[in-house]
Design a protein that fits this description.
Elements (H helix, E strand, L loop, with lengths): L4 H20 L9 E5 L4 E5 L13 E5 L4 E2 L9 H10 L5 E4 L3 H9 L5 E5 L16 E5 L6
The protein binds zinc ion.
Length: about 150
């Protein structure tokens, strides 16, 4: 399937910008984290493996199809590409996946790995989630173990 090169340029710039934004906040230290966005029903643009996210350029974002095949690049995609593709396949409304590795999230996921979930309850910040209007609620955050 073909893709619009102007759309690819726009999406790639956005991925590079969000990479710098997330890196500056310490949410993807060293070369951690990976980002992608949907180009169309069959293609995504995704960051390459092992690159600092504050130094991303257009050459560090490659095009892949939903089968995990790379289009027009010799670079290696993120090792967590299957997670991105799975999410796009599960929900047509997903337009981007921003996978970070903040220290806080990493520590929490290790502490709660056995339970495979983290329960957030009675926190004011829960209202940041879509459709939640009160702190008097709970949300379950699933924890996925990536054994690559
Ligand atoms: Zn990861």
């Amino acid at each position: 399937m073909m893709f619009n090169p102007v759309l690819l340029t726009t999406k790639t710039r956005q991925i590079c910008e969000v990479g710098r934004f997330l890196f500056e906040r310490g949410w993807c230290p060293a070369t951690s984290g990976n980002y992608s966005c949907r180009l169309n029903k069959e293609l995504i643009a995704i960051t390459v493996s092992g690159h600092p996210k504050d130094e991303l350029t257009q050459e560090d974002v490659i095009v892949m199809n939903m089968m995990g095949n790379i289009l027009e690049s010799t670079k290696k995609p993120s090792s967590e590409t299957p997670l991105h593709i799975l999410l796009y396949q599960m929900d047509d409304n997903i337009e981007a996946v921003l996978h970070t590795h903040s220290v806080n999230a990493t520590v929490l996921s290790r502490l709660y790995a056995q339970q495979l979930k983290l329960k957030l309850e009675n926190y004011e910040v829960l209202k940041a989630f879509h459709r939640i209007t009160t702190h008097d609620t709970q949300e379950i955050v699933p924890i996925f173990l990536c054994l690559l």
